[in-house]
């Protein structure tokens, strides 16, 4: 059974940091890219970061570039999203998702339909 489990969300003040984790199981980690999306109340789900398990390449939406960093621990089959200099507008439910690496153009802008598997989401709230 494929599972993606996010953790690490919470409440933080503006300017603070959080690190989200996405633990993957049930599939060959190296065959999939990981996308991080977020959805704020009343807004569309937005792709913010991309990580390729095959070559460790990353890509970021302009809204988070320079503040968010994706990394992985291939032994643990876990991908991390380090979020620094958080802003109130970063408040959202954050989801990790997985897409087969064979799909073209998985990077920014991330397309929700390209991603087959989704975690349950973790809430990030940034107070001003």
Walk me through this protein's architecture.
This protein is 0% helix and 50% strand. The relative contact order is 0.31. The protein has 128 residues and is mainly beta. It contains no helices and eleven strands. Strands 2, 4, 5, 6, 9, 10 and 11 form a seven-stranded mixed beta sheet that branches. A four-stranded antiparallel beta sheet has the order 1-3-8-7, with no helix packed on it. The model has no long low-confidence stretch (mean pLDDT 95).
Key features of this structure:
11 strands; mainly beta; seven-stranded mixed beta sheet
Write the layout of secondary structure elements.
Elements: E1 3-7, E2 10-13, E3 18-25, E4 32-39, E5 46-52, E6 58-60, E7 68-73, E8 78-83, E9 92-100, E10 117-118, E11 122-127
Parallel strand pairs: 2-11
Antiparallel strand pairs: 1-3, 3-8, 4-5, 4-9, 5-6, 7-8, 9-10, 9-11
Q: Give the count of helical stretches.
A: 0
- How many β-strand runs? 11
Low-confidence stretches are: none
Q: Output the radius of gyration.
A: 13 Å
Assembly state? single chain
Q: Look at the structure and give the mean pLDDT.
A: 95
Order of helices and strands: EEEEEEEEEEE
Helix-and-strand structural type: mainly beta
First-last Cα distance? 40 Å
What general outline do the C-alpha atoms trace?
globular
Helix content: under 10%
Largest sheet: 7 strands, mixed
Hey, roughly how much beta strand do the residues contain? over 45%
Overview in brief:
The chain has 128 residues and is mainly β.
